[in-house]
Design a protein that fits this description.
The complex is a heterotrimer of chains A (441), B (166) and C (159). By secondary structure, chain A is mainly alpha-helical. Chain A contains 20 helices and eight strands. The two termini of chain A are 25 Å apart. Chain B contains five helices and four strands; from the N terminus they run H-E-H-E-H-E-H-E-H. In chain B, helix 1 packs antiparallel against helix 5 and helix 2 packs across helix 5. The longest helix of chain B is centred in the last third of the chain and has 17 residues. Chain C has a single domain, classed as 2-Layer Sandwich (Beta Polymerase, domain 2). Helix content of chain C is 21%, strand content 31%. The longest helix of chain C has 12 residues. Chain C is elongated. The relative contact order of chain C is 0.13. The chains are: A mainly alpha (441), B alpha/beta (166), C alpha/beta (159). Chains in contact: A-B, A-C, B-C. The interface between A and C is large, with 42 and 39 residues.
Chain lengths: 441, 166, 159
């Protein structure tokens, strides 16, 4: 079946396929172009090459089990997806995470946001030819991921933020890790500002390219840094504050013209603001008293020590569950028997704990929110990331829908590149930060 | 066609030495085609960047044209819509070519067992190295590259001008 | 399920287009008539209500329990910082509704997605065809009667 462009294109122009496997297409987007020489007369964007059936799969998983699927939505800022989902569930269940858990959530969200923007600027600059920027940004991202890995155990897809709080308390040495990440990121931002801000080639490729007006941006449903680059102030963290964001002091940078350069600048400035929030969160974490933090043993010693221990006495958790001891629970997870996995000390030593653990995971039991529906959103790396969950009272969602910010951004691409050169598509596409895991679900 | 991936086959001392020489040359100059679709792409980017450098193994240059690449790295989930695209890209690559399926989704469909996802890349094209992980750490990708290099070293290489009619 | 001030105003402005209006978990929800939906949407977009952003457009398959596919729209007004959800139940024998593509530009793709996954027809849509799935895919997967694992491969399996 011929696509719309193939039917509409005139006979003198050339049809070129900027195919689903293209280095600048960030995964798998296909743009069918009608070209007159190098000028784009018309275009057609085709998506769906990463449609993984997320929403249908979630209808077949319990609320607890589908958390790893949410990690893989916007995979450059995975903790923000986790947070979006858990906030929607907590709204439906009527839970509230303890204060320490909220500050940890903000810290992790902002680390993810910095990682998202670093990757976006890296990819955009690399595709314009500035490979150094890519290497610098990925270097900074590695330090951020080291910090996340120190606490949660995984670099990317962590499933760390759980319904009711977070999975485990921060690592005892997280301050050094976060401090290192913030220092390296600040240095990298300074370098990248020096490399790109007044760079003639970069300016020629991004200034006044991909211009969008405020009315069009609103009509397309744009949110996030791309909307703020046109000058409209809408940030979910300020409009509908969640997880204690209203107690943090940060600014929301705005652009002026809505071109690629403004989108790049807005992202760079947002990273600086995120680093401010991270520093405030670290200070606040020092102030909120932690529940007893476990002194971490090295894995080999812990395994050797565990072999000598008799099971009847107080059990020591294995190193993989460090941070989720029962003492830490009051700080990191809400006190709700129905929605939280019980502490392992209870599970392994008392029959009531064992039964509660079993019932939590048994099919048909576990987290069962009351019948109803909820829409809750967070500020993702690209804009308003919303979760719409319909519950019918059972342990599986009846319908789970993701409001993907990238879908609205990409819907505008056809009008942004019309009449421009082929080479203008690359920075335009890169500045919108299209993440297909979120778009195609 | 002509190239046996199992071994060099019977031959004299000179042919096996020449085979090893070709293997050595090919394994340290792999041109990769990263067919990136999903989250594993982020770990691939980390593997290619400065900390876990792919370039020091000789496989640093990415060639985004199948005509110029000899190693197809399929990174991420392959949906049903993408299946024919992967096949076309693989068919356009010239021999000798190798395929690495990176990530649980490319290996076997991963956590997505539904109407939209191909359950494993080897339903579409033959795969040489499977890299599990969701996503695999960059060290795992480097380890897979080393295993592929071992395979390239040890396999038979067809270096004749005329291809055998087979 | 109390009614807030905004809901009262909406009810006053569009008396015949709305079936119910209530507040649920802090959000304002309006259940609208499918036939008059385009006029309601235009009224929401224009002054004085000014819902400038169409945040989301999706569908819920309640065919089993309520014999309808329910369209769910989420609108946002920037100046009043208010999010409104509008639900439009579509009877099982008439799965069509007016398209909002003339009012909000992102409705184009959002409606294609709903058509692709649920099979709802949008009258007045400029180019209604599948968005995520490929030509040749039969059926609408997000409906409850479509099995999760029913694959329709585009390429014959090697195995």
């Amino acid at each position: 079946m011929a696509s719309r462009l193939e039917r509409e294109a005139s006979r003198e122009s050339m049809l070129l396929n900027m195919g689903p496997s293209h280095p600048s297409m960030h995964g798998a987007v296909r743009i069918l172009l009608e070209l007159d020489g190098e000028r784009v007369l018309n275009s057609e964007v085709e998506v769906g090459y990463l449609h993984r059936g997320f929403e249908k799969t979630c209808e077949h998983r319990t609320y607890f089990n589908l958390l790893p699927y949410t990690d893989r939505l916007n995979y450059v800022s995975p903790l923000i997806n986790n947070l979006g989902y858990t906030l929607a569930m907590e709204k439906m269940l009527g839970l509230e995470a303890p204060e320490r858990a909220q500050v940890i959530r903000v810290l992790m969200s902002e680390l993810s946001r910095v990682s998202d923007h670093l990757t976006c600027v890296a990819a955009m600059a690399m595709e314009c030819g500035a490979f150094t920027v890519f290497l610098y940004n990925i270097k900074a991202r590695e330090f951020i991921w080291d910090t996340i890995e120190q606490t949660s155990g995984a670099r990317m897809t962590t499933s760390y933020i759980r319904i009711g709080g977070v999975r485990a308390d921060l690592h005892p040495e997280f301050r050094e890790g976060v401090g290192q990440a913030v220092r390296q990121t600040r240095q990298v931002l300074k370098d990248v500002h020096g490399l790109l801000d007044k760079n003639r080639i970069f300016l020629r490729r991004t200034r006044d390219v991909g211009l969008i007006s405020q009315e069009d941006a609103l009509s397309y449903g744009w949110t996030g840094p791309c909307l703020r680059s046109t000058g409209i102030f809408y940030d979910v963290r300020k409009a509908h504050p969640y997880s204690g964001y209203d107690r943090f002091d940060f600014e929301v940078p705005l652009g002026e013209r809505g071109d690629n350069y403004d989108r790049y600048l807005v992202r760079m400035r947002e990273m600086e603001q995120s680093l401010r929030i991270i520093e405030q969160a670290v200070e606040r974490l020092a102030a909120t008293p932690p529940a007893v933090l476990a002194a971490g043993l090295e894995p080999e010693e812990a395994i050797k020590a565990s072999r000598d221990r008799k099971p009847a006495s107080a059990p020591r958790l294995s190193p993989t569950l460090e941070g989720s001891e029962k003492d830490a629970y009051s700080g990191i997870l809400a006190d709700d028997g129905r929605s939280i996995v019980p502490a392992k000390e209870d599970t392994y030593t008392s029959i009531e704990g064992l039964i509660r653990h079993f019932k939590f995971f048994m099919a048909g039991h576990g987290i069962r929110p009351p019948k109803g529906e909820v829409y809750s959103s967070v500020e993702g790396g690209n804009g308003e990331l919303g979760f719409y969950i319909v519950s019918d009272g059972t342990d599986r969602p009846y319908r789970l829908h993701l409001r993907a910010p990238c879908l609205h951004l990409l819907a505008a691409l056809e009008s942004l590149i019309k009449g421009r050169y082929l080479a203008d598509i690359i920075p335009t596409f890169g500045s919108m930060n299209i993440i297909l895991g979120e778009l195609d679900r | 066609m002509g190239m046996s991936k199992r071994g060099p086959g019977p031959g004299g001392f000179l042919t096996t030495t020449f085979n090893s020489l070709l293997g050595w040359g090919r394994k340290y100059s792999l041109f990769q085609y990263p067919f990136i679709t999903a989250c594993c792409g982020m770990e691939y980017m980390s593997a290619a960047a400065a900390r876990f450098d792919l370039d020091r193994f000789g496989a640093g240059w990415t060639r985004f044209s199948p005509r110029q690449a000899d190693m197809l790295l399929v990174v991420g989930t392959i949906s049903q819509k993408q299946a024919s695209v992967v096949r076309t890209v693989w068919e356009q690559m010239a021999e000798p070519k190798w395929v690495m399926a990176i990530g649980a989704c490319a290996v076997s469909g991963g956590i997505y067992d539904n109407y939209a996802v191909v359950q494993g890349l080897d339903e579409i094209i033959p795969v040489d190295v499977y890299v599990p992980g969701c996503p695999p750490r960059p060290e795992t990708i480097l380890d897979a590259l080393l295993k592929l290099q071992d395979k390239v070293q040890k396999q038979g290489h067809d270096w004749r001008w005329q291809k055998r009619k087979s | 399920m109390a009614e807030t001030q905004i809901l009262s105003e909406i009810r006053r402005l569009f008396p015949d287009k709305i079936r119910e209006a209530f507040s649920l978990l802090g959000e304002d929800v309006v259940v609208a008539e499918p036939k008059a939906f385009l006029a309601l949407a235009r009224g929401l977009r224009d002054k004085p209500l000014n819902y400038a952003l169409l945040l989301d457009l999706t569908c819920v398959d309640t065919l089993a329990c309520q014999s309808c596919l329910e369209m769910v729209y989420t609108f946002y007004a920037l100046d009043r910082n208010h999010r409104l959800r509008v639900k439009v139940p579509l009877p099982a024998d008439d799965l069509s509704i007016s398209s909002l593509a003339a009012l909000w530009k992102n409705a184009d793709w959002l409606e294609r997605e709903v058509y692709d996954l649920f099979g709802v027809r949008f009258e007045g849509h400029p180019d209604l065809r599948r968005l995520f799935l490929y030509d040749g895919f039969e059926g609408h997967p997000l409906r409850k009667d479509y099995p999760l694992r029913k694959r329709q491969p585009t390429f014959p399996s090697r195995k």
